[in-house]
Amino acid sequence: MTNNLAKILIIPSLILAFNSNAAEQSTSPLANQISISADRQEGQLKENVGIFEKNVEIIHGNRRITADRLEVHKRDELGDNKQLLIATGSPAYFEEKQADGTVMSASANEVRYDVAKRFLTLVGDANISQAGQKITAKSITYDIEQQLISAEKDENSTDRVHTILVPIDVKKEQKLNKGQP
User: Cα–Cα distance between 88 and 56 in angstroms, integer?
Assistant: First the structure.
């Protein structure tokens, strides 16, 4: 009974979490399908938290998360979509295919994704890359909607933020600006 009740409460939370950006979704029923795999699932009903552990993988449309552990928090104070996803691992991964076809990938010991704000927080050996560009730091925050990124080193470390930039082919950029493939 408890396991069935947990499924009833947790699965709609995940559906809402991943359906937050409806413009990216197709009208195909398969595009709205969510695939969740884990060795263990638990629901903390009083706290409105779903927990997935060991070999966790969630695939939905253009997003993919893999982790050792994933917590799905659903609370009114989190905004319209009310979900916060917290993935932990060695490392945990988050990927999202962008409108331009590139894949934004992120990894860290802890990956937090605020669904309503489309905001990533990466903590501990944080990496983020897209279109050949890469940033490595102790912590990174990324506002996906506003395309704003911030990276910091650990204050007790001599390691600094490291960025790799790849030059963009001028001809390719001109074609993209004119709407040509």
Answer: 10
